Amino acid sequence: MGDLGVISNFPDSRVVESARLIWNYLSGFASEGPCDALVVCGSYDLRVMDHAVRLLQQKISKTLVITGNTGNWTKHLWDRPEAEIFFEHGRSRIPDDVEVVLERKATNFGENILFARDLLPDIDSVVLLTKPNAVLRVLLTAQEQWPETTVSVSSPQYRFPYDVSNVVGLFGLIDEMVGDIDRIRKYPKLGYQVEHELPKAVLDAADFLASKGFDNHLAPDLCNEER
User: Fold this and answer.
1) pTM across the whole model
2) How many CB atoms lie within 10 A of CB 75?
C-alpha cells in the first residue's frame, strides 16, 4: 500500500463503508450463462479458477482459455505465467471433455481480452471470469475490444471485507478499487474501454478514500493498464 502512516484513524468505519460501496458497485455487473467459451483472466486470486471449474462442471461451456503472464500484483508473486499457475490449480477438476488453451503473454485486462479474442475468432458468446472488484472494468474493456461477440463477466462471490485475498489484504484491495474507479474515468478517452457514467456516491467514495491515502494504484501517467 505504500506509507500506511498517511491513513488517519484506521480502522475507520467510513473508510470501510466507502470501500464496501465501491466493492458492491464494481462487482454488481456480473452475469453468466451457456457460452461458446469461458475465458479466465489471470490475477493474484486463484479463487477465480475455482469458479471456472464450478462453471465447467455445470456444463456452461466446453472451451476454456486461461490468459495471463504476470501483472502489477503478480510479478513478485510467481515466477511463471498466471495462466500456468491457474491451470495447475484447477487441472484435476476440469472435465475431460473441455478443451483448454493457455495464453501466456497478457499483462493487463486489455491484453487478456485481445489475445483471447485472437484465439477464439469464430465464437458468438463468451463469459469472462475475474475478481469481483474487476467485473465492471473487464466488462467495459470487452465491450470496446470485443464488440462483435456477446460478452458476460462473472466472478466468485466473496463477503467484503471478510474474504479479501490475503495476497493484497484489505489495504491493498482498497487501493486497487480506487485505481479501478480512476481507470473507468480515464480509459475511455484512450480507447481502452467504453464510456460509463459512475454514480456520484461511488465517485465521492473513491475521492474520500484517495484523500485517506488510498491512491497508490491510480492510472499511471503513460496509461499502461495495470491489474
Assistant:
1) 0.92
2) 12
30-154 topology per CATH: Rossmann fold (3.40.50)
Q: Is 145 helix (H, G, I), strand (E, B) or coil?
A: helix
Amino acid identity at 26 = L
CA-to-CA separations, 74 to 48, 104, 206, 217, in angstroms, rounded: 14, 13, 24, 14
Q: How far is the C-alpha of 226 from the C-alpha of 214, rounded, in Å? A: 16
**Which of 91, 107, 117, 92 is CA-nearest to residue 43?**
107
Q: pLDDT of 28-54, one tens digit each?
A: 999 999 999 999 999 999 999 999 999
The domain limits of the chain are 4-26+160-211, 30-154
Sheet holding 125-129, edge to edge: 99-103, 63-67, 37-41, 125-129, 150-154
**Cα gap 194→74, rounded to integer Å:** 26
Query: Which grid cell sits at 31?
Result: 452475469
